[in-house]
Amino acid sequence: MVKIRFIEHTGVEHNVDALEGENLMSAAINNLVPGIDADCGGNCACGTCHIVIEKEWLGSSGEIGSDEQSLLTMTPEISEGSRLACQVVVTPALEGAVVRLPEFQM
Amino acid sequence: MNMESTTKMVSDPYAVDIDSLDFSDGRLFETGLWNSYFERLRNEDPVHYQADSPFGPFWSITRFDDIMFVDKHHELFSSEPAIVIGDMGEEIPLEMFIAMDPPRHDEQRQAVQPVVAPKNLAAMESLIRERVAKILDGLPVGEAFDWVDRVSIELTSQMLATLFNFPFDDRRKLTYWSDMAAGTPEITGGDVTNEERMVALQDCLRTFNQLWQQRQSELEIGEAESFDLISLLLSSDKTDNMIERPMEFLGNILLLIVGGNDTTRNSLTGGLYALNKFPAEFEKLKANPALIPNMVPEIIRWQTPLAHMRRIATQDVALGGKTIKAGDKVVMWYVSGNRDESVIDHADDFIIDRENARQHLSFGFGLHRCMGNRLAEMQLKIVWEEILKRFSNIEVIGEPTLVRSNFVKGYSSMTVKISR
């Protein structure tokens, strides 16, 4: 189990025990964290699981692929730390990671 | 060019050899036969090569997962030069970002995307609600009228006029140009003549040229920045001289008009039709309006207002046990993928509280995913909230008239009667 702290845009926090090896999209959805639509079901094809990972953990969130990068550039609310949750695999290095949810998904 | 289908349309697609069926026939959508045609393909030959059609040979991709694969891999399947089954014709060689690959696609899309960004939409919500309320309050109660004309077209043309900051009284011109743009036999198997289309597109270009000049001079004299689409094009250094490239200018304008018009229009009609075909769902909705946000994506799936998108393979690709050759035309039939029972349970049924209702193909996937999806969803949500506040029932009388096109899956009229 890896502890992840999801924070909604309103400030509401959800502390989740994520399974090592799953991605942050399913960690959020399986723990009823709102704010992720996941229209493509985790195929890196829609951009509706946009999250922003706090700086401290960004380096532990893995490489951004070119597909993911293209979809992120279509999101008007892109910022430093933007990722697609379906592309971030939970590892022990993410222990305690703070993950912010944007107000809107594209 | 003779655009008559090379094969006869048959009422039972199972009765003949699968290779003799023409899946590009616009009449399939006018008659509703598309459903059994594509059901057969999904089951028997999901990645299907049709050697002969009025649009030349093409592949039909019919299953959900295969469509997702093609849509996602823009490097294997190019969107150039056109995204409908037929080519656009050489008299007016339109260019639009939906039919471009990266990097040009990305530059142009990024310029206009802010207009439909969720933040901008939230600011527009009350205006949309006001306009919806006015349209609904003006409808006759207890007498038959055409829902398509009085609600679906009216509302979407008002919305488009708002997004373009287009003269409000001329808003039906937008609808007309939209109908003309992709309505010919060569492009989508429709019934618009080339002459009529040519005149309409020239008028459209002239009008938007004037609008561009007007916006530009407003910007120059320092009038407040407006958030309409023309102003956005004028304010990005990638697109601020688009007016010098008339075919690119007209192409992108038409893209935004068609994208914001036919789609929402036909989902507005399709939702009401579906609720009449599945009356238990209508009762469920009336008893619990909180289901609206889940019903909206279900309407968009069930209707699938755009039946297909097409690509050209950039290299040989193995898919579903077949080899698609470089240069082959590939048609992703969203309308079929949205009825794929291996992904969507009871896919022919309209179920407003369906689980995972958002997982449908109507917006496409990947780089070219629908830009206006959130606007569309918001409009549908508001319309249904306002309908339920006002009326106890809306009854569809008889069967609607459907559009002849293999691209726009829509309604030309639908008679209804409202009960207070």
From TrEMBL, chain B:
Cited PROSITE patterns: CYTOCHROME_P450
Pfam family, one: p450
Gene Ontology terms, MF aspect: heme binding; iron ion binding; monooxygenase activity; oxidoreductase activity, acting on paired donors, with incorporation or reduction of molecular oxygen
InterPro entries associated with the record: Cyt_P450 (IPR001128), Cyt_P450_B (IPR002397), Cyt_P450_CS (IPR017972), Cyt_P450_sf (IPR036396)
Coiled-coil regions listed in the entry: none
Gene3D superfamilies hit by this protein: Cytochrome P450
Cofactor(s) required for function per UniProt: heme
Keywords from the UniProt entry: Heme, Iron, Metal-binding, Monooxygenase, Oxidoreductase
Signal peptide: none
Family the UniProt entry places it in: Belongs to the cytochrome P450 family.
Name used for this protein in its record: Cytochrome P450
Organism: Spongiibacter nanhainus
Organism lineage string: Bacteria, Pseudomonadati, Pseudomonadota, Gammaproteobacteria, Cellvibrionales
